[in-house]
Structures
1.
Amino acid sequence: MVNTVKTLPKKRERKPEKETTNYSTATGEIKRTKRWEVSGREWAQYRKYRTVEIRQRLLNKYIPLVRNVASRMAMGFPRSVELSDLVNTGVIGLIEAFGNFDPSRGVKFETYAVPRIRGAILDELRALDWVPRSTRAKSREIERAQIKLENKLGRPPEKSELAKHMKISEDELHIALDDVSSTSIVSLDEVIFREDDNRQVPRIETVIDKATHSVLGEIEKGELRSFLVVAIDRLMEQEKLVIALYYYEELTLKEIGEVMSISESRVSQIHTRSVAKLRGMVRERFALTG
């Protein structure tokens, strides 16, 4: 008699589910949602007992959803915006969504929570932004107009063309551009490439404080000032008078012409010739000593 041994089939091991989230930042919807390891039984248990422990456990399981949304949003923000800050703010949106969610409506929590997470992150960034929203909107409007005209003309548009396209005056455009340009800020901690080599350094190391006066710079300025006195003394009397009236008395070329009883164009010629002479003498002097 042959003994037959019945072999039991091996129990299939359940593989961990992979994240397959495909989140659309344009619509704020999840087209293919990962199962965030929160079952219907867990939601039913929470609705029944509503204990702090169950609530915290469910929230912890949705943290990857917050990180996913924050990571995608961070791609459109400057490097100075830290991902960890976005995640922390997104968790606040997650908690608010969790408290207001009504599972009886038949909507997935992920679909309901994503817009609230994005909204919380955007609200926090707006609160930190010192630039008025109207200025930001104006900046985007100018940028869109520039791109449209450049594509149409095949070249960067002139200020007059841009103003005409936006149906505003050139003065209004200049004011708008001044407002927009004053809103540009950079991080001094940002790592950049130097112009003279390919070494990365913090931006703060490339900033030159022009208000700081060095001893060598003061000596050079004093030497130049002393030599200019000598150089001006070498000019002709008429040239000296034009230089004195223009730079010391701060008269216009027309006023100098009236004082000297000559035409404005003649004053301009004398001024140009005098400056050329002084520049030549300075170059010659400091070329010999340098």
2.
Amino acid sequence: MTAARVKARGRPRSATAPAEEAPRDAFAVLVAAERKGPARASSGEPPTQRRSISEQVANRIMAMIKSGNLKPGDQMPTEAQMTVAFGISRPPLREALKALTIMGVLESRQGGRYTVTHLSPSRLVAPFNVMLGGVDYGASQHFEARNVVEGELVRLCAERASAEARQRIFKLAADGRAFHHDPVAFRLADIEFHEALYRGAGNPLLAALAQGLYDLGLDVRRVASAAPGVIEISVRQHIEVAEAIVARDSAAAERAYRRHLEHVRDTTLQSMALIGRD
């Protein structure tokens, strides 16, 4: 065997198929620009290491979106292209893509390609709402959080809401008087009233957070709203809040709303005790 043949046999073969060579496209350039350090991994990396790499990849994609290099509606490259561009194997890449999909940053389209979403406030707080569903907390902590978020929203609503929004808030509050003995109809009106308050503040992100907090524990509040006298008190408090908002009195609106939340909290705790829930 000649020296040339020995040298040829000793030369390592490329582990990457020609179809998966680093793509010479704009995405590869973006990855190179965003890359903070090496993130290579083999297909056999341990889960803890893979998780760290997937977080790096997710952060790089987020950085591209924040910088405007990836825009809503942009289609991501194929998984094969991304593994080469990021220098990683498919398992951590798929973990990163899954995490970004859960967060609402990406969405999976037919054919397995991912697309950058339109990051509306509701999408941005989706992970927050998922997290809330798995957190162990008590009713007092829940209403403390509502006080912080919704109290500020009501104050902003009194300052910022348009004339049309103020009139709608007042009408929704006053219309509740027709539902003193109809808990189902009142709960529907209650949702509309609170959503109108949130929107009137002019901060969609805070409004989405408030909606997530409002939606927690609706099953218990169904029981509370059926208790004698609860709806009448809530309707009266809604009207007090609405009157202060119409008058553009932010301090009075906030005080009235906090009193209303205290009433909702107390009746919710009473209902939880009746049905044997902590």
